[in-house]
Amino acid sequence: MTARYMTPIFLTLLSTSAAAQGTPAKAHICLAPSSVETASGSAATAMSAVRETFTSYLTGPTLEVAPLSSRLESQARQEAKAANCPYLLITTLKQEHKGGGSGLLGRVASGAVQQGVSSADVGSNSAAGRVATGAATGAASGAANNYGSSTQAKDEMTLTTHLESADGKVLVDMTGKRKADSNGEDMLTPLVEKAATAVANAISKPAP
Q1: In tens digits, what is the pLDDT along the chain, a chain of 208 residues?
Q2: CA atoms of 123 and 121, how far apart (whole Å)
Q3: How far apart are CA 176 and CA 63, in angstroms?
Q4: What is the spatial distance between Cα 204 and Cα 107, in angstroms, rounded to a whole number?
Q5: How do the domains of the chain map onto residue ranges?
Q6: Which of 41, 158, 164, 201 shows a CA-CA span of 20 to 30 A to 27?
Q7: Strands 170-179 and 63-67, how do they pair?
């Protein structure tokens, strides 16, 4: 009698256990505050846009992002280590006005502001990518568009992306550049999408 009524319960438990075992663990990526140098908008807006856009592209069935608070690169590494992060993502964003004024090529306009992680020695490596799972969410799109609203035609944006494992191995070290064709153009999202693709590909790549 008892066995008869307990059987469905055991079957449910076994089914739940099997489903849990079939769910892949997510790769946990710690994202340091971006180091920002911009002649457009504010550094705080740019930092938020970078964080939200990377988070949207690197959130999915096998990926998740945890933002860090430490701005110094050395402290960000310590924070990531304390949180047992298997991956640390460090980014640098630079936007320059190129449409006129007294600025020279390769030089940020005099009104530029800086914030974010201060970079020291960073190794180099490269990685090909495939499209990262997950599309930009409304929040990320809004943050990127908000920052891009002050962009002027011919502005140039450079995004540097550095991903390393917990043992310090460099998995991705790439730089992307884009030039605005019109005022208010969102240059950040396509640059982040390409960088996130490389990050997702590097993480999913089987160990040799």
Answers
A1: 444 444 444 434 444 443 445 566 899 999 999 999 987 778 888 899 999 999 999 999 999 999 999 999 999 999 999 999 999 999 999 999 887 544 333 334 333 444 455 444 333 333 333 333 333 344 455 665 666 667 889 999 999 999 999 999 999 999 999 999 999 888 999 999 999 999 999 999 876 6
A2: 7
A3: 22
A4: 37
A5: 25-204
A6: 158
A7: unpaired
